[in-house]
Amino acid sequence: MAGTANPNRIELIFRHDAFHRLVQRITDSDELSWYGIEARGLLGDIDPSQLPILIKICEQNREFHIVSFCKNFRLLNRLVFDAAFYYLARGSKNPYLVFNPDADPLTPLLEEDVFGKLGCEPHEIYRRRKR
Predict the structure, then answer these.
(1) Which of 1, 32, 37, 101 has the fewest CB atoms in 10 Å of its CB?
(2) pTM listed for this prediction
């Protein structure tokens, strides 16, 4: 786990598996349809048009909360009104829990787009050893 702090926000950034274990997103389409929600994908993605239904469900059932998938690919364990889509969750409601794929320590260091940004080939990148 890592943390970031700045004057505007404090966030705890978890690895993908740790975030999902704590937050416990509901991905089962049958369970979501039971609550009147229609997921648009296999992972329980909920369209922003269904946000009023989600808010109502969370107000009526205190065990649930909303997770927001923002346009910068971060998952925030809180409601953000301009998110790309949402999830219903039943785990930790800590609003500072965030999954940021750019900060995940298990994300591969070298990705194809990195080479394009650096303007070099993979064999031209070396790591220096500390002496």
Answers:
(1) 1
(2) 0.70
